[in-house]
DNA sequence: TTCTGTGAATCTCTTCACAGCA
DNA sequence: TGCTGTGAAGAGATTCACAGAA
């Protein structure tokens, strides 16, 4: 999910698979809930259910961290919370800046899960001078002019981009130039960053489109149609240009009626 | 990324890999941008760069859809926009409800990419009676009591959950009972749903934690430390319970100083 | 006996490298 | 000649199934 070439380009250092890393937060959340209920130990089966994965996967994941369980018993909840937190780097404090305080940026700033678990909102930054000084989630919004000094002064290495798509790359460049090496991008754009900078993106419309794909297939199967052919395309198919008009095949059930040959 | 057992459990129907489906929206976005600039054709190399992937992957992805390119030339932009839209089911209209109109729900409602590209916000729903009737993004907020009738009357099959974690499962159950079969979950909870319902989740704090993991590793490598051992754990490690206190190994560089043996 | 930890098998995804069409 | 489409190889992730510790 990290953008393109950026992703762990050099040494794989300690061999903990990316897919496992992506699940550790899930386990951590489930464990934290257990911890709050003062549950002392948990089996791989129980924890897996709580985290929404299967137990073999969970055990395999944990095996990359070390042997933290007890055969015949399970895992010590508190101990595992600590180990995973440490592995994820949450035993230290990560100052974060959010750039772009529109609807989304404000929502992020107010998001509770932010403050807890090792992350601290160091500053909210927006390009609109009218926003400057206005308090959002208890913090005064700072103007973009201050971006570099905020990053430097607070030792920020993680930035969240919640600006419109058009501004994202420029903001990204400034963040990176100022020393940020991890970026969480909510803007619907592909960011290009130098080697060594991690980008993860969260994109509402992509998620919806993936759901639509599966939804469409369900509908197709229900009515006995070929899954790839929608019931009634609303838009007309554009004619192919002359250069590309011949010899198309497609995987069989391919818009036979609508498309020109 | 769909939650657990739910994910495409039955027939794989037309064999288009999940990883490919997840990238189609990316290609579509890049193609739409080219289309707006009236670019007629594009090579796999150019398009791949614009979408942030490599060209071999892109060509392989497209090969699952059919042979839509022209050797020696590239892909016809308009034509490919149509084919991908169709494949994703975006040539039809998907009514969507958003449940939970807090900061995040409002941000989602105002998000432009929603309205375009086949999705239409059919209703905004919130449990707070004080919200009812208040216009958000041009739509009056409806009360949760109306949830079932809204779903049924509008033929909604996709629901977005932006409620607090505590309410999410309950809202999910009601959505599913009313006929929703695809859910986009922004609440930090694992949702359990019956077979045949797709769930995708978007989780800010998980993304941040993954970034923190990589960030920590970078810092560790820089200073020549073992990557898995953080500089200075801020929290004390909890002692293991007696039952689990012996024989731990861990993958070598394992908190030797801080942890009790 | 119970439940973890893990090799081995399997499945999926990515990348390579080149045949073949325009 | 240039670029797509795709088998084949390679890498990674998941699942199986069971040895072995408590």
TrEMBL record, chains A, B:
Disordered: annotated segments: 217-261
DNA-binding region(s) from the entry: 26-65
Residue ranges occupied by any CoA-binding domain in the UniProt entry: 89-190
GO biological processes: negative regulation of DNA-templated transcription; response to redox state
GO terms of molecular function: DNA binding; DNA-binding transcription factor activity
Protein localization: Cytoplasm
Biased composition (Low complexity): 224-245
Keywords: Cytoplasm, DNA-binding, NAD, Repressor, Transcription, Transcription regulation
SMART domains: CoA_binding
Cellular component, GO annotation: cytoplasm
Coiled coil region boundaries: none
Binding-site residues, NAD(+): 100-105
Quaternary organization: Homodimer.
Function in brief: Modulates transcription in response to changes in cellular NADH/NAD(+) redox state.
Similarity remark: Belongs to the transcriptional regulatory Rex family.
Protein name: Redox-sensing transcriptional repressor Rex
């Amino acid at each position: 999910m990290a953008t393109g070439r950026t992703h762990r380009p050099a040494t794989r250092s300690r061999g903990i698979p990316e897919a496992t890393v992506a699940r550790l937060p899930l386990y951590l959340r489930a464990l934290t809930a257990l911890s709050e209920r003062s549950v002392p130990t948990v089996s791989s089966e129980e924890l897996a259910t709580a985290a929404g994965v299967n137990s073999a996967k969970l055990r395999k994941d944990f095996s990359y961290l070390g042997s933290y369980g007890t055969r015949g018993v399970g895992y010590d909840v508190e101990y595992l919370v600590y180990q995973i937190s440490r592995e994820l780097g949450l035993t230290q404090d990560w100052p974060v800046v959010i750039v772009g305080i529109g609807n989304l940026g404000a929502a992020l700033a107010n998001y509770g899960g932010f403050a807890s678990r090792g992350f601290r909102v160091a500053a909210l930054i927006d390009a609109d001078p009218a926003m400057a000084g206005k308090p959002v989630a208890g913090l005064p919004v700072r103007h973009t002019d201050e971006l570099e000094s905020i990053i430097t002064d607070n030792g920020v290495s993680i930035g969240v981009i919640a600006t419109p798509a058009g501004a994202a790359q420029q903001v990204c460049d400034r963040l990176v130039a100022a020393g940020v090496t991890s970026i969480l991008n909510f803007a619907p754009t592909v960011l290009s960053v130098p080697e060594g900078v991690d980008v993860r993106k969260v994109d509402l419309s992509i998620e919806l489109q993936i759901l639509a794909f599966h939804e469409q297939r369900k509908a197709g199967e229900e009515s006995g149609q070929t899954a790839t052919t929608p019931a009634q395309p609303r838009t007309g198919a554009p004619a192919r240009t002359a250069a590309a008009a011949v010899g198309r095949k497609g995987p069989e059930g391919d818009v036979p009626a609508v498309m020109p040959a």
